[in-house]
Each structure stands twice: as C-alpha cells, then as structure tokens.
C-alpha cells in the first residue's frame, strides 16, 4: 500500500469521501463481523458481571444520623439504623455481602487501639444488628487497628516502628470479638506477617471453625486510600503523634513489585486463607491476573476509595459518563480474573444490572 504524506496545512483538496475508489482489502479474517450486532456481541462476550460479584464496603458511625464523606460523593458514614436499612436494600438487590468499616470517635482512640477489642464497639454492634435483621447477607469485617489507634497505623507502634508479632497478637483479639459478634468473614487488611495463621488458629480454638478468612494478601502502600482514611478518620492529618508520618510502607507493599505479590498470596494460602485479595484494583490488574493464574483460588479485587473518587468525581464534573465508566472498570476486574469486587458502587451496579435485565 502506498501511503501518502499530507502535511497538516496542505490537505489534498481532490480527496473526498464520495470520490474514493471502491476498495477491497481482500481480507478473509474480519474480527468486526462478531461485533456487528448486539445479539452477536452478547453471544461472543467472554466474561459477565453479575450481582453475585459484589461486596459493598460501608462506613459506620455512632449516633442517629449519616454524614457525607467529602472526598467520596454519594457515599456517607451511616449510623447503625441506616446501615441495617441499607443492608436490607443490598440483600433485596441480591448483593451477597457487605464489608463494615467504622469511624471511631476520636475520644475512643488510643495508642494501642484498645477499642478494637471491645465486644460492644461500633462494628460489633452493627454486625449484631445487621445479622438479626438481614441474616441472609454475608458480613465481612476488617481486621486492622487503624480506625482505633491515635496514630492511624494498622498495628502496634513501638518507638516509631509498627512491630509485627505484638500487632498479630492484637489483631487476633480483634478477630475474635468480630467473630463472636457474628461476622461471617474476617478480613485482615493489616499486612502483618503471620496474621492469617494466628487468626485461623484462634478462630478454631474459640469455636469459630466455619468463619472464613479473606486475606488482603497483596495490599500496596497506595495513595488511592486517601478518601477512605478521611472516612474512617485515620489520615495523617489527624495524627497527634509527632513520630508519625502516616506512611505505611514498612508493611504495605511497594507498588513496583509484582513477584512479591505472588509470595504474599502463597503465604496467606498456606496459613489458611479461604480467599485472597489484591488491593487497590485498577492500577494493579496485572497483579490480579497473575495471582488468579498462579493459584486459581477465590480472588477478589478492591476498587478502593480513590478509584471511586476518580470515577465519581469526574462524572459529577460531566467529564466522563459515570455509569459507563463504573461498569467498564468492573468488567475489567472480571476479565483480569477476579471472582468478585469490593466496590462502593455496589448498590448502584446492582440496580443498573437489574434495570438492564428488564
Ligand atoms: N487497614 C485499613 C484499610 N482497610 C481498607 C483500606 C482502604 C480502602 C479504600 O481506600 O477504599 C484501608 C486503608 C489503609 O490501609 O490505609
Ligand atoms: Mg503477608
């Protein structure tokens, strides 16, 4: 084929659509055939997103009103009463599970995060209330100390260092009170070494043999958690300890590492994780793909707060089509191998899928 070079300022005036010769490239392979009609596109579609793929993370707070999360338009911190009602709505939309994240009153936060071990803390009370009202929905609770510590770290801090083994001992206590409150899935998001084994052992010993563990196995030290930290009040801005930077890079993973994610997942599976997670989602689709390919176990992606904020923020500015970007971002997780996705969009997606089904 001859390619004609046309400089930007010299368009060939004699070339018009209606004067182009009838061309035939003589192709036998034309991938566009399968795309020409909606029925055909449906027929050749490789993966599908259904409500079965959704876990809805919700933020909790004390009191009897809800407060918007400023960096996550459309998301609020719910009081328990609202959370129960929203769990009912989620169940009615066929969303399999919700994940609970508390905003802890600053007066209840301390150096050791002791409110985490209070069997009457916000998460435990919400778990009991939701279980009583909506027994059919799965409840996932987060194990990590950051909503409870004055310094905002996920573990125990000694001389400015988040110490591993003591942190694990604390996380075990937290997991036990959550399981006792009725949590179905314990989800350690702390990234301490050895916590899955310790939690599994303690759950079994305490009579919670059937409580599942979803390990945040490959969790990266990410800027995309920013809005979440505001929502649960654990951002660096709220830290009072001068020793702290709010930086979690000594326990969360380096965004440059992919092989390391496979080693982390292997360890958590050996230690007894029933499901594993990659987090954040969209910037780590390669990691998700590799994890699923390597282990073929139930694998989840967390579309985190910053990802939600980017899509929803741009949509509210009118810069992108929010619904389409939402659906496209979620089908990408499925294509990469996710069995499910934690997403703040869950109820909206479920609603949209229901409307599409007619
Ligand atoms: N261990 C806490 C935790 N659990 C889930 C998220 C982030 C979720 C989100 O950004 O949506 C975080 C934040 C963090 O590690 O700092
Ligand atoms: Mg690990």
TrEMBL record:
The keyword Metal-binding applies. Pfam families: ALAD. InterPro entries: ALAD (IPR001731), ALAD_AS (IPR030656), Aldolase_TIM (IPR013785). Mg(2+) binds at residue 264. Its EC number is 4.2.1.24. It is an enzyme of class 4 (lyase). Belongs to the ALAD family. This is Delta-aminolevulinic acid dehydratase. It comes from Pseudochelatococcus contaminans.
């Amino acid at each position: 084929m001859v390619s004609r070079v046309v400089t930007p300022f010299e368009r060939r005036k004699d070339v018009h659509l209606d004067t182009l010769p009838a061309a035939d490239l003589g192709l036998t392979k034309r991938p566009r055939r399968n795309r020409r009609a909606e029925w055909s596109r449906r027929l050749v579609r490789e993966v599908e997103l259904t409500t079965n793929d959704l876990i809805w993370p919700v933020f909790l707070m004390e009191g009897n009103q809800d407060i918007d999360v400023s960096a996550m338009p459309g998301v609020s911190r719910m009081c328990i009463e609202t959370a129960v009602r929203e769990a009912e709505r989620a169940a009615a939309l066929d969303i399999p599970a919700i994940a609970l994240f508390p905003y802890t009153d600053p007066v209840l936060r301390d150096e050791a995060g002791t409110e985490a071990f209070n069997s009457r803390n916000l998460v435990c009370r919400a778990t009991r209330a939701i279980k009583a009202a909506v027994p059919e929905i799965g409840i996932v609770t987060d194990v990590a100390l950051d909503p409870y510590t004055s310094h905002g770290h996920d573990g125990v801090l000694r001389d400015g260092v988040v110490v591993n083994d003591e942190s694990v001992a604390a996380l075990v206590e937290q997991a036990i009170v959550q399981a006792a409150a009725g949590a179905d899935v314990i989800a350690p998001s702390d990234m301490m070494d050895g916590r899955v084994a310790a939690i599994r052992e303690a759950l079994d010993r305490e009579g919670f043999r059937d409580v599942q563990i979803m390990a945040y196995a490959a969790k990266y030290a990410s800027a995309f958690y920013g809005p979440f930290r505001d929502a649960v009040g654990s951002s660096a801005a709220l830290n009072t300890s001068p020793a702290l930077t709010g930086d979690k890079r000594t326990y969360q993973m380096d965004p440059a590492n992919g092989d390391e994610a496979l080693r982390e997942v292997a360890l958590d599976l050996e230690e007894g994780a029933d499901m594993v997670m990659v987090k954040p989602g969209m910037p780590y689709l390669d990691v998700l793909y590799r994890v699923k390919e390597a282990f073929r176990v139930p694998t989840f992606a967390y579309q985190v707060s910053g990802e939600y904020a980017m899509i929803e923020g741009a949509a509210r500015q009118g810069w992108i089509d929010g619904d389409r970007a939402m659906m496209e971002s979620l089908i990408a997780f499925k294509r990469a191998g996710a069995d499910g996705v934690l997403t703040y969009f869950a109820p909206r997606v479920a609603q949209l899928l229901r409307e599409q089904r007619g």
